[in-house]
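Supplementary Note 3. Input sequence used for the single-chain structure prediction.
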Amino acid sequence: MSEGPNIRFSFSAARRWALRFDYALRTLLVLAVVVMVNYLAARWYLRVPLSTTARQPLSALTTGLLRSLTNDVRVILYYDPQDPFFTTISALLREYQNVNPRVRLSAVDPLWETGEAQRIKNQYAAQLIGVTNRNLVIFDCEGRVKVVPGNVLVEYTLELDQEEGRQVFRRKPVLFLGEKAFTAALLAVSSPRALKVCYLTGHGEHNPDDAGESGYLKFAAVLRQNFLDVQPVQLLGTNAVPPDCALVVVAGPVAPFSEVELERLDDYIRQGGRALVLLNFNSLKRPTGLENLLAGWGVDAARGTIADPARSFRGSDIVIENFGARPHPIVKPLVGMLPLHVILPRPVGRLNVPNPPADAPRVEELAFTSAAATLSASEPRRNGPFSVAVAVEKGRVAGVASERGSTRLVVVGDSWFLTNHQIESAGNRDFLNAAVNWLLDRPQLLEGVGPRPVTEFRVTMTRSEFRLVQAILLGALPGAVLLLGGLVWLRRRR
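The predicted structure, written as discrete structure tokens, is reproduced below.
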């Protein structure tokens, strides 16, 4: 059978150029689509954490602080990669960098990168004096340096465990404090100077240096985490509130203030001062005089303590979840998330003044008991709900020169809810953090940073169970794969 004629197809020059142009145009269109998709993905994207170390997003406080950064911050992870928490710390710092690229992260292995490690130690020798931990996280912003030792990033507890038939105590990690420490360090290096907090003393206030249950050591630590310099102050003799004081704290006094002290405190507030006033139920027998000062600012600090058995664990405490129909910025982060846990609070609310002047202070009630609450000193017996905290704000006073701006007060009818024993309960720490930053007019910091729980996965096996698992993984599974492969080979040969 003869073959058919050899047919050759050809295109004209115009046809060939048309095809080439079509191919080039299609290629350019595909490249343009790829470039546009990458551009859009870089600007608007959704990040889904797959790692257990990055499962919890950054808090609103950290995110707000990062977005407010305008200077470059160098973060050096001077850490042993074999440390159990190295991956967690590294992932967290990368989250900081993802929010704001001005946070520039670099890692140095002090065991293997000895030359770079020695250079960093020489560069930050002044800041590393007295630091014995070899794992460090160094924050540097324009020469302002903060060093975070690795041993403060994890909180441990002792746990009784079984090991080879005997009982031993093992350190178990329970809380990861990295975000709290890193955000405090970031705030410290990005702020030009620490603001001064004047902590009034001399009237039986809670001691900010006392680590006991009734002390305020943790209270002072929260202030320092917000890059505030806490200094004790007395208003006796010729002492007045220092002109560089950014915030006055009156924490649970039980002894009366003198008239001179009250005048000096009131003068400071009228000049655009900021004050956090915490009342103590132990002062009911000896009024401190603060009640009259607060009344001049539209605050009614009534006598007596509130009981709310339906919202109490021990009778003297009250769990408060009602923050009003329109929550104030101080308590807004707590709504639906965390309650306040107060101890024998005094009622603190808005003073009812008929026909108040146009420039009267604006008083907003923050937190309320339930309707079943009662007031101990009320005759006849009065039921709730009662307000236990207020925020006061007033614009500049006409004719008074002040660099501080508007006056702001936060008054709470309880001081015990912020003691070392109680501050970690419910949302107490977060309330303090938000109240301080509202008073200082730092809206980007009106959220708290809580510790992250450490999730630990453990498998406990006896020696015989371990040998069985070892045999399955090293013998049975590879053997099954080889057997299956052999059967497939035999079948194909047939």
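The chain has ten helices and 20 strands. The CA atoms of residues 337 and 427 lie 8 Å apart.
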